[in-house]
């Protein structure tokens, strides 16, 4: 009986892995096809001749170097800002004592129920009135803090004994010194997880950059994919090549930090 259960479990995992990975694999394969091969019906799964020139054409048809710089800058600054604000907020909610702390936590968690689409136009009006449209500040400021990541770090921080903080205070350690020298090294797996998830979210942003930028010089990578859609139709093979270029940095980051991500997620998951 156990062998049958294991067989179906492995079969399910293999099928789900195939369903998950196939779009990415086909995207890479389609990026090396000709236009006719990429739109053929029934679809072709291998190019007759590998078209490396698609990647050269992508870089020539759109200012992808500029898009890449913008996306990298916005993602790094946003991630750094989120890490600073969420660590400080989580520290205050876990280690410090103040009136109505539970009410504050309840209010913050309530904000998680509000979808981004419900506040996007309010944020747009705020950015427009501040005169920040078509600037890096418009792309970064609305995402400089995150309730979700703050709550995630709060849950992780609650696994750290509060006696560490009290002992540090007795030794004359300040709050910022305690965070820098004690808290951050202990929380490294959770910080890597938050940092990578935030970086990926910023890297994949599409709607907000489209709303607050007007010139190609301020566009991000995902907005640049529209450059390969014309009135005659989409250049599918170029869109696939551009998409492949877009996801490569994220894949590299994931493989570089996968151990820390799994460690951070599993520790919070076990606690929950």
Query: In order across it, which strands form the biggest sheet?
Result: 1-2
Helix content: over 70%
Which strand-content bin applies to the residues? under 5%
- Count the strands? 2
Largest sheet: 2 strands, antiparallel
Give average pLDDT, whole number.
Answer: 84
Q: Supply Rg.
A: 23 Å
The number of helical runs is 15
CATH topology of the largest domain: MetI-like fold
Q: What's the CATH superfamily of the largest domain, by name? A: MetI-like
CATH architecture of the largest domain: Orthogonal Bundle
Give an overview in words.
There is one protein chain. The chain is mainly α and 272 residues long. It folds into 2 domains: 1-50, no CATH class; 62-268, MetI-like (MetI-like fold, Orthogonal Bundle), CATH 1.10.3720.10. Helix content is 72%, strand content 1%. The chain has helices spanning 2-30, 35-39, 53-61, 64-95, 101-111, 116-129, 136-140, 147-157, 163-170, 175-186, 188-203, 207-212, 221-224, 236-256, 258-271; strands at 229-230, 233-234. Strands 1-2 form a two-stranded antiparallel sheet. The protein is globular. The two termini are 31 Å apart. The mean pLDDT is 84.
Secondary-structure map:
Elements: H1 2-30, H2 35-39, H3 53-61, H4 64-95, H5 101-111, H6 116-129, H7 136-140, H8 147-157, H9 163-170, H10 175-186, H11 188-203, H12 207-212, H13 221-224, E1 229-230, E2 233-234, H14 236-256, H15 258-271
Main location: membrane
Subcellular location: Cell membrane
Organism: Erysipelothrix larvae
Features:
single chain; 272 residues; mainly alpha; MetI-like fold; 2 domains; two-stranded antiparallel sheet
């Amino acid at each position: 009986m156990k062998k049958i259960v294991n067989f179906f479990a492995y079969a399910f995992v293999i099928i789900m892995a195939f369903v998950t990975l196939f779009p990415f694999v086909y995207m890479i394969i389609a990026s090396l096809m000709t236009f006719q091969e990429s739109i053929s019906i029934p679809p072709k799964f291998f190019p007759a001749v590998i078209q490396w020139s698609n990647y050269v054409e992508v870089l020539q048809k759109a200012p992808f170097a500029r898009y890449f710089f913008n996306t990298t800058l916005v993602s790094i600054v946003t991630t750094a800002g989120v890490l600073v604000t969420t660590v400080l907020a989580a520290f205050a909610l876990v280690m410090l004592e103040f009136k109505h702390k539970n009410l504050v936590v309840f209010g913050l968690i309530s904000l998680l129920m509000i979808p981004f689409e419900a506040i996007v136009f309010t944020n747009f009006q705020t950015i427009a009135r501040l005169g920040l449209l078509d600037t890096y500040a418009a792309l970064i400021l609305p995402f400089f803090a995150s309730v979700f990541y703050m709550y995630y770090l709060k849950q992780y921080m609650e696994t750290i004994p509060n006696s560490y903080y009290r002992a540090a205070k007795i030794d004359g350690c300040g709050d910022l010194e305690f965070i820098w020298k004690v808290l951050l090294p202990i929380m490294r797996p959770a910080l890597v997880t938050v940092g990578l998830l935030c970086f990926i979210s910023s890297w994949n942003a599409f709607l907000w950059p489209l709303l607050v930028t007007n010139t190609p010089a301020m566009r991000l990578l995902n907005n640049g994919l529209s450059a390969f859609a014309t009135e005659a139709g989409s250049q599918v093979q170029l869109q696939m090549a551009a998409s492949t270029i877009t996801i490569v940095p994220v894949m590299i980051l994931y493989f570089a930090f996968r151990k820390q991500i799994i460690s951070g997620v599993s520790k919070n998951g076990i606690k929950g």
